[in-house]
Design brief:
With 201 residues, the protein is an alpha+beta fold. Helices cover 15% and strands 35% of the residues. It is built from 4 helices and 14 strands. Strand 13 (185-190) and strand 14 (193-199) form a beta hairpin. The structure holds magnesium ion.
């Protein structure tokens, strides 16, 4: 399976990163070794001193597809979950400076914790979500603020990559990204349901 992540999909997050609001989706990949499941802890890597949380809604692809039309894109995912796109912000800044690829900053082992999933039929049209660190809400988003809708993202990505059952799409983070530290507990909520809870070690 593969993990596809959308960058800068909420205008307020693009602004906090001093990045332009994109005119077409920006995306990158993480390997399956980035996944953390079952609320297992995240081990702070020694190559970074600035790991940031980015809470994101995650689509689970339920059917293989290529060149999917946007109007049919909803048929390719049934479940939505929540995850963290961990980012080594210090390494990312160096990569950006030199115009180098981001993988070291984005795709390292454990950089994609993911929680349990909910059938999209049980969710409202605009989905709210938030992240608590040590019980305090640090990021709050709603899909009504997406620059590119879930369906637009599925259609766009599938022009370049065949989507396969079980692939995950991280759909972008709202504003409020920030550092994590050893000992922190991260809890991510989709609407009022806590779907992800793990510790930084
Ligand atoms: Mg992200």
């Amino acid at each position: 399976m593969k993990i596809i992540c959308i960058g800068r999909n909420y205008a307020e997050h693009a602004k906090e990163m001093n990045a332009a609001v994109p005119t077409e989706p920006v995306f990158f990949l993480k390997p399956d070794t980035a996944l953390i499941k079952d609320n297992q802890p995240f081990y702070y890597p020694d190559f970074s001193k600035e790991i940031h949380h980015e809470v994101e809604l995650v689509l689970k692809i339920s059917k293989a597809g290529k060149n999917i039309e946007q109007e049919f894109a909803h048929k390719y995912y049934e479940e939505i979950g929540i995850g963290i796109d961990f980012t080594a912000r210090d390494i990312q800044a160096k990569c950006k400076e030199k115009g180098l690829p981001w993988e070291k900053a984005k795709a390292f082992d454990g950089s994609a914790p993911v929680g349990s999933f909910i059938n999209k039929k049980e969710l409202p049209a605009s989905i709210g979500f938030h992240l608590n660190v040590n019980g305090k809400t640090v990021q709050k988003g709603n899909t009504k603020d997406l620059l590119f809708s879930f369906d637009a993202v599925v259609a766009y990505v599938s022009k370049f990559f065949t989507l396969k059952t079980g692939d995950l799409i991280y759909t972008g983070t709202p504003e409020g990204v920030g550092p994590v530290a050893i000992g922190d507990r991260l809890e991510a909520y989709l609407e009022e349901q806590k779907l992800l809870s793990f510790e930084i070690r």
